[in-house]
Please model this.
Amino acid sequence: MLKSLIAEIKDYKKPSILASVFMAFEVIFEISIPFVMAYLLNNGVKESDMSNILKFGFLMLVCAFLSLFCGIQSANYGAKASAGFAKNLRRALFSKVQTFSFENIDKFSAGGLVTRMMTDVTNIQNSYQMIIRVCVRAPLNLIFAFCATFLINAKMAMIFVYVAIFLALVLTLVMRTVFPIFKKVFKEYDHLNNSVQENITNMRVVKSYVKEEKETVKFKKASRMIYNMFMKAIRLVTVNNPAMMLSMYTSFLMISWLGAHLIVSDELTTGDLTAMFTYTMTILMSLMMFTMIFVLLSISTASVERIDQVLTADSTIVSPENGQTEVKDGSIVFDHVNFSYTDEDGDKAHVLSDINFTIRSGEVIGILGGTGSGKSSLVQLIARLYDVESGAVKVGGVDVREYDLDHLRKQVAMVLQTNVLFSGTIKENMRWGNKEATDEEIIAACKIAQADEFISTFKDGYDTMIERGGANVSGGQRQRLCIARALLMNPKILILDDSTSAVDTKTDALIRQGLAASLKDTTKIIIGQRISSIQDADRIVVLNDGKIDAIGSHEDLLLSNAIYREVYETQTQGKGGEEDDK
Model:
């Protein structure tokens, strides 16, 4: 599990090692101070020997200075190493997500991936810094302090052995109880992030239905659940504090009682007893550090598991080795295709059944069907956004599974139902379709998509800044910009998935005329809810419950297909006006 994460330390191995090395030297110098102090008391103060007082006093100052210097260096290198590790880890996660198929994204959820990149990586960053510093300091402190106490007096040193055993038992019991709680907490974080993301993305819908209060209550409930779970874990962890205090006071009492007897019997000096008290604090502080380490590691272990799930996940859709790089033409064959979505539990939701038809290169195909009939799922198989369950989808006479994914998708331009624009200028958004596109090519594509008309009204024209998600343009404008962006790809297949639903019928007709005139050799698939959007297609496919109900021209389907005729009559009777361009 740790192998995939350790690989991301990469160029930060050197500062990681130096952080640990400097921490080790800090411990050595720090542990030396009580020993030197014991010599100062026994051979300097007790004997009133000023030379020894000065010599051992100066030595203590040197040890303290070197300990401070090493501690500062360790902190600097530790911060650099942990921040660099977190940077590499986030970059690896983001790069991995870019290779995921839609099925992988559905499995982890957008909110779950955000939690992993932010909260989980931060937990691991903090833990890593503690591992290369505190996890070096605590055991070395403990070992050196134990050795020092045994050198001073073995009888007194045994007190710390019993204390350590007692605290280890308490810590083990607490951690076994706390770890499952932290695993549940991060699952709740996923749900919370999904809720926030969904709410912010769909803020207009929330406000239009006046559901702000309901969404606020929903958020508070999820947030309160996380708070309660954290508090439960913290209450369990705080059991360590009374256990630590009990150990501390017991140690002091036992050392004071036993030390007094040993001094009376001349088995121990005052300087040795003073050093023993100092080492008592060192040992107990080291044990307290171990408590902190185990608490943070129990949190980060859950985070490690979740990140490892992403880094080691294999994309369900990958390019074949030496895949085809040339798409000969825009012909498409659906050869007895069956398709299902699979949820986290492995249950399948059947979507498409025995889809079997052929589309000629350059043909215009309309697709009509009710909600849930499988229209979007059907066209997403062409660009291999999902893989078929059985059967085959062929493009240019070749099974899409035999193509290199990049080359296939560059020849299949899709304008999906959800029209997404990115922060930047209109030109920058257009160049997502073709990064080498000239200004003239961008304007030409926008004219075909009927976008040039409204872009010209903007003060900055094609240099107008688009806000995140295209929030500062209307729904119809967003759709036309997305169509123009797809046209710049100059694809062999163009898929419009209900992508003119927000424009009026006149603009819709102009877009279709522009596509017919400029992309004569391109296969065009138009999914539409309006008959007017698809009635001029060469053929129209009617889907019903994931199956082909009929295929034919507009006139043929009006005569032979009840579903198509019913939709047509519903849309043409009592039609009161055109759709708003919003």
User: Anything to note?
Assistant: DSSP finds 21 helices and twelve strands in the chain. The radius of gyration is 35 Å. Residues 576-582 have pLDDT under 50 and may be disordered.
